[in-house]
## 1
Amino acid sequence: MSLVIPIFIPHEGCPHNCLFCNQHSISGHVAAPVTGAEVGETIRTWLARARPANRGQVQVAFYGGSFTGLPSTRQTELLAAVQPFYQQGLVREIRLSTRPDYIDRDRLDLLCHHGVSIIELGVQSCDDGVLRRAGRGHNRADIEQAVRLIRERNIRLGIQLMLGLPEDHFRTLRSTVETVIRLRPDFVRLYPVLVLRGSGLEELYHRGGYRLLSLGRAVVLAAFMKKRFDDQGIRVVRMGLQPSTDLEQSLVAGPYHPAFGELVQSRLMLQRTRQALAGVPGTDPVTLVIAARDQSIFRGLRSANLVRLRQLGLLDRFSLRVDPEQPRQTLRIVGTDWAAGTQTPPGQPLDALPSPSFLTENDKSTGQRTASFNQR
Ligand code: SF4
């Protein structure tokens, strides 16, 4: 497992004022800008506490603001502070986030010179109208140009997207997803728009000019996006903002949930369970196999998935088994008449399903942990 050492540079270097943005609320930092010496001290502290398993897989991540919007002397100060650790191999990767219009060849020269290997672009949307309404100050052409330049340097690329921006409808969201798929990032992060205290969106919201996304709708949209990216082999590494006291105190309204990502994965698991069972002929119960760590996703928040499966009359159609070898977020069926008890039904691509977690009975005859939903 890798250890991420976070360095917060909230709002530094950013002259923009995106409608939704309140960087202080998100990062929880309103203090003076971090110095190079403090960066070094932070890294030393984290390394001293690192577990042996984490050593050798340490990443320093500059969060917040727009790193490459800082003056080059300031960028150099921050990156230079990481160099002693990087050159000794104590830090393996350096990651930062920035805006698409703050990427050019000179800036990338500086980053490459200091070993930056991952850049996350705050893209938010690929629709020019949505970007304009959000006051982003860049357009889709800037995004495509930045991606091209980053790719030229073989730097890994992450893309951050938002759902629920003003004037972003399903059509524009879907178009954004398809554009991002064509850009082939290494990973994406999905953030539902929240109304934060002090942001322009708060004013708009209080004036009645912004219609909130409900939590349920945000989950549905994020599930759609995740499935598209999963299908294309693009990792979704985060869904929803990291919960924190600062964030919760700044939150005015919006689809916030501390386990937003799990809600999305549970929804996808329910879809895939239904899809899997729909492909099974006859009425004999089958066994669904999931990864042990996916049990809670399978169950859903407050057993919502099980309730839904019961409503659909599907809860008696299967028992659940946990297999340590089953990849996470996947599901397979065993024990059916039509496939000698071992195969996935034809046409059912069950190997790419999101998974859950909640079974506990021990099947002593097989040594596998099993349970049946209708017993619970
Ligand atoms: S570019 Fe980033 S830091 Fe700057 S205002 Fe917009 S969201 Fe905030």
## 2
Amino acid sequence: MMELQALKNKFDIIGNSPALNYALTTAEKVAPTDLSILILGESGVGKEVFSKIIHQLSPRKHGPFIAINCGAIPEGTIDSELFGHEKGSFTGASDNRKGYFETVNGGTIFLDEIAEMPLGTQSRLLRLLQNGEYIKVGASQVLKTDVRVIAATNVNLMDAVQKGKFREDLYYRLNTVPIIVPPLRERGNDIALLFRKFSVDFCEKNKIKPPQLSEEAKELILNYRWPGNIRQLKSVAEQVSILSDADHLFPEDLIRFIPNNSTALNLSGGTASDFNSIGNELAIKMLIELKQDMNDLKRMFFELSKNTPSNYDSTSDSGDARILPTDRYISANRPLGGFAPNVIELPERSTTTSKQHQVDLLPENLNLVDMEKKFIVSALKKHRGKRKYAAEELGISERTLYRKIIDYDIEE
Ligand SMILES: Nc1ncnc2c1ncn2[C@@H]1O[C@H](COP(=O)(O)OP(=O)(O)O)[C@@H](O)[C@H]1O
Ligand SMILES: [Mg+2]
């Protein structure tokens, strides 16, 4: 047997929790056999990954592997897809068709959401599991195939048996070796390891700087119930990496990407589907570009600021950004590389580069609201609470400033 860590490295598996280790060890043990395997676990825990591990560690590894989602194939065509059909066997069957059990001969088939398989298909599958025999739809000839079956479900199959929706004999046939893949919320610190891995991978790929979790943020992700499991964690880690401009993530940076607060703690129900994902690749690409631009800008401004030291008030002991008397400015209050100054003056418009124009397009999610609030606080501080001067410096009317002070709940 391969050492467990080597196995994890080989398949990019992150985590050290005992339940995960146990599942992996079981997978490794059953892999070399031809036994049918039933993988149990919630959506997004890694069931498909496990099916691939089993195939790869089996003597069939050079044979084909195919993953079929039984819940995604219409009831009327699933028999034909899996077992093939004879020309003319039903309306639309204009050709002979090979089924997956024929094309995957010598390999492994992963039947995901097996509980969704219609009863008729279950009978065909049972026969195939018992002696490798099957009959194409509309045919009479018995055919043979050598396919290993790995099935998976996120529902309680015994319930389905009791409701008459799943054949009991098939259940026992499949369930000889169950592998239980634990939900993410039961994996303890694996959650933090996975978050780190996903954000670092994503940031490396997109050439942005990976954020660090603060202790509080770590606490939050360790206690959240993660209804969508690893798939959800991956999505959150990636979204936070693009959308949060912080080097250090705090709970409020994460909470935006976590569905609703009532299910945020590891207490009640909630499903993967209430996870609010951006889901729009184009929007994500745009945001990545914006974030890269932001970083370029910061770097550029930092370089510029080194040449204009008089603009940086090194005697200021507060960490807040100061407002400078320019018509446009940007806060680099989150240091780049840990040593950028807090305030950087923008060059005159005449030296404006094409990238600068994009500052105008920055969406609110990049924390412009936060920045605005910080600017106002700084302006007020600088002018010792005198709104008239602070407003003047901010380039807004006193009334607008007054409204913003109330909106942002700024204490004077
Ligand atoms: N232990 C793990 N370490 C790293 N990534 C994982 C791990 N388990 C699952 N994943 C990833 O999580 C995602 C969901 O896994 P998947 O196998 O599709 O889940 P399921 O089939 O249970 O819905 C995939 O992107 C997979 O690569
Ligand atoms: Mg899946």
